[in-house]
Every structure is written in C-alpha cells, then in structure tokens.
Design brief:
Number of domains: 1
Radius of gyration: 17 Å
CATH class: Alpha Beta
Strand order of the largest sheet: 3-2-1-4-6-5
Helix content: 25-40%
CATH superfamily: HUPs
CATH topology: Rossmann fold
Bound molecules: iron/sulfur cluster
Strand content: 5-15%
Distance between the termini: 19 Å
Structural class: alpha/beta
Number of strands: 6
Largest sheet: 6 strands, mixed
Shape: globular
Length: about 240
C-alpha cells in the first residue's frame, strides 16, 4: 500500500478517528488549530483545486500554499494560479521551482520527461517540495478517494515519515465538489472546458475520454499514476512530500 500506516503515529491516529466523517472545513479548522503556522497546503491549482483553496482562504487566508511550478505547466494553469489566489484572498502562495543545478545536470534540454518520467518528477516536483516542507510539521493535500487507484484507501489524516498529512476532501465525490463550487461561484480552470478533468504538466496530461477515470489522462499509456510526492520512501531517505497533483 502506497500510504503510510497510521498505527505508528498516535497523533495521526487520534486526528483521523476524530475527523474521518467531518466536513472539510472542520478538518481544515482542526489542522490549523493543531499546527498553526507549521501547516502548509499543497495545491496544483488544477481542475478541482478551487474548492479546497476556497475553504482554506476562509479558515486561514495567510496559510502557506505551496505551488509546484515545474516549468512544464500549461500557461492557463499559471494564469489561473494568479487569478484564483487574488480572487480568494490567499496572501501566502509560494511558487516552488526546480533547482537550476538539478536542471542543468539532469535535464539540460528539458526533455527528461521523454525518457524517464520518474527522474523528471523527482527534480521538478519531489525535491522542490521536500525542501519547502522542511519548515512545516503538517500539510494538507487535495486528494480524494473517488480518483481511484491507490487513493481508494485514503484516510482523512495520515502520517508521512514524520509529518502529518490531512486529506480534507478524501470523502467527497464529484457531486460534492461541483455543488460547493456552484454555491460559492468559484472560477473553473480554463482547460476543464477542453476535456481535462485532471491537469498537470503539459507533456504528461491529456484529456480524458468519456467514461474514463478522472486521472486517466495523466501519464496516459504508462504504468505511472502518481508523480512520487505521495509515495512512501524507503526508511533512511528524506520524507516524501505533495497535493492535488
Ligand atoms: Fe516531468 Fe511529466 Fe513529471 Fe511534469 S509530470 S515533472 S513533465 S515527468
């Protein structure tokens, strides 16, 4: 199983028991109350990101929002990140970029995605997020069980090798998200209208076909289903870290 056991961390275990049926806003409030400024939210500003960002903005508008600008995102995502953050009043969105040295060494032509997607995700997502999360004790993701795959067993609160991870939308389905977005008149990522139900880097994202899973267009035709930031690492390696990405 890709996600860490709760049993090793009594704080995660207690919080999961208390919050497993709670409304996402209640989960956000509990996370803020427990961790304050040691809590971050990781967001891709993708197709379903607006709901969690809106709830976070209502609970703590200066929460640290970590956005992985991999250098391979759609221009529409970069515009959406600016516009949505301003609209919601989020005051602490941080753009995380890959290290120049890592790009120069491992991907000088920006074509690593063609030959080794895991290595590309490592330098463009996993390492930058790992560094940024160093100052936090807990973080919030936008993952949901209805996305399937490893996410089917997602708890509301889990641990990731020393950090607590909150998944406030774990219990929500597409209808819940759509209802919340409509009720709060949230702006939609412009690529949703072009058939993208899940949006990542442009080389690795395609529209989904009718009836396919939400994430079917991510790394289409490959075994890969996650970028690596949500996969537990072997003991002795740095904490693994990530969001709705
Ligand atoms: Fe590279 Fe694709 Fe991973 Fe983006 S999703 S970091 S382009 S392999």
């Amino acid at each position: 199983m890709a996600f860490d056991s709760l049993a090793r961390n009594p704080v995660a275990l207690r919080l999961d028991a208390e919050l497993r049926h709670a409304h996402p806003r209640t989960i956000l409030e509990a996370a803020v109350e427990s961790f304050g400024d040691k809590l971050a939210l990781v967001s891709s500003f993708g197709a379903e990101s607006a709901v969690l960002l809106d709830i976070a903005a209502k609970v703590k508008p200066d929460i640290a929002v970590l956005f992985l600008d991999t250098g391979m995102l759609f221009g529409q995502t970069l515009d959406y990140r600016q516009n949505l953050a301003a609209r919601l009043g989020l005051t602490n969105v941080r753009d995380l970029r890959p290290a120049y040295q890592d790009l120069a060494t491992a991907d000088p032509q920006a074509k690593l995605w063609q030959t080794d997607t895991d290595a590309c995700c490592e330098i463009r997502k996993v390492i930058p997020l790992d560094k940024a999360l160093g100052e936090f004790d807990a973080w919030i993701t936008g993952r949901k069980r209805f996305h399937g795959g490893d996410r089917l067993n997602l708890p509301v609160v889990e641990q990731s090798e020393g950090k607590i991870k909150f998944n406030p939308l774990a219990n929500w389905g597409k209808a819940d998200l759509d209802a919340y977005a409509a009720e709060h008149d949230l702006p939609v990522h412009p690529l949703v209208a072009q058939g993208f139900p899940s949006i990542g880097c442009w080389p690795c994202t395609q529209p989904a076909e009718e009836g396919e899973d939400v994430r079917a267009g991510r790394w289409k035709g490959m075994d890969k289903t996650e970028c690596g930031i949500h996969l537990a690492r072997a003991p002795g390696t740095p904490d693994n870290v990530g969001g709705d990405i």
